[in-house]
Write a structure and sequence with these properties.
Length: 115
């Protein structure tokens, strides 16, 4: 046993921290994570619905969606609804994989912390 007792420290927390740091940086924002979760469960959501649900301004939501789209996490789809066009946002396959990986890693960290 060393002075700090480091030999006894499990390597699992270190592995989990490294795994967490591999996750897409764009998801480490509460608003972007909320957008991703809503799209994950709802499949497609239009801009006004996201704005209402998350209580964001137009500019705030547009900025977060731009970052997510830039990283390939979401896509915008224009669709005609009667006489009006609307933009619906969907989570991409890459976005689903990234979100599930982040949630799995956080879940593993939580389990390890409870031991």
């Amino acid at each position: 046993m060393s002075v700090l007792g480091l030999e006894e420290f499990s390597q699992e927390p270190e592995r989990l921290v490294k795994e967490l740091l591999k996750q897409p940086y764009v998801l480490f924002n509460p608003w972007r994570l909320a957008i991703m979760l809503e799209l994950y469960y709802a499949s497609a959501v239009d801009f006004s619905q996201l704005k209402h649900d998350l209580k964001l301004t137009d500019g705030g939501l547009a900025t977060h969606l731009k970052f997510l789209a830039r990283d390939g996490m979401v896509e915008a789809r224009r669709e005609q609804v009667g006489p009006r066009a609307r933009t619906a946002f969907i989570i991409t396959k890459k976005g689903i994989q990234a979100l599930e990986s982040l949630l799995d890693t956080l879940s593993s960290i939580r389990k390890e912390a409870r031991q």
